[in-house]
Amino acid sequence: MNRGGALLCIGALGTLGACTSRLSDHDDVYSRGADHFVLCANSIDDRYDIGVDEIAEALSRAKRDGTTLHLYTHIPGETVQVATLEGVLAAAAEQGIELVTYEELSLHAVPGSLALSFDDHALASWSALRPTLGRYHAQVTFFVSLFLELGDDERAQLRQLADDGHDIEYHSTNHLNAVDYAAAHGVAGYVADEIVPALDAMRAEGYATTVFAYPFGARNAELDDALTPYFRVVRATRGGCPR
Questions:
Q1: Could you list the residue range(s) of the whole structural domain that residue 47 is in?
Q2: Does 55 reside within a domain?
Q3: Does 5 reside within a domain?
Q4: What are 42's strand-pairing partners?
């Protein structure tokens, strides 16, 4: 199944069934603030072929139910069209949907909102999106990986995003699969190698970083327990969401 977008059900004879699923059908990408330690988001990268109309429908559910819809992507202009992002922001503005950061959600609920986040370390592409975000007065969350490898220019771009009011959060030291790494080196090894080094560095530079997004959405309950001393909430993906 395509965990990022619409799901097509195949019947016993291999024919298309009637259980086509849309983004708004998935309860696990909605929350009431940080009602669980693990919050789950749906990718809107182009590869999943989720249109703006489908996202607008999902936003309508968030407004109707008083919940937060969680969406994430990676590189504007590469993994997701800038036009798609602008369409999402326009749809949210049209419906009176507030964009909320994960820092805010970790503290209190924001009914009828959208938590839009960007993963990894595409600082140039993120910075190029600043005028678009500014036009819509949109506050988003950037989950940063490979912080220790960022150059001075990239760190300056990250600081500018923070100064714009965006939320800078954590996405691991080396962007490795947490479940695989813990299986090979132990959960304590994962924390020591993939959580502590860059987290300490980011906090030393003044970033609060109280929220973590699992690389690839790979997580399990043992890892969640090990991360509770470090973060108020963690973000997974629909494919790795607790069942």
A1: 24-240
A2: yes
A3: no
A4: 71
Written as one letter, the residue type at 48 is Y
At a CB cut-off of 8 Å and minimum separation 6, what does 81 contact? 46
CATH (domain of 152): 3.20.20
* pTM for the whole structure: 0.92
Domain count of the fold of the chain: 1
Q: What is the pLDDT of residues 7-38, one digit of tens each?
A: 333 333 333 334 458 999 999 999 999 999 99
Query: Count of alpha carbons within 13 Å of 154, Cβ hemisphere only?
Result: 14
Give the tens place of pLDDT for each residue, 188-223: 999 999 999 999 999 999 999 999 999 999 999 999
How does pLDDT run across 132-157, given as a tens digit for each residue?
A: 999 999 999 999 999 999 999 999 99
* H or E element, residue 183: helix 178-185
Q: Say if 19 falls within a structural domain.
A: no
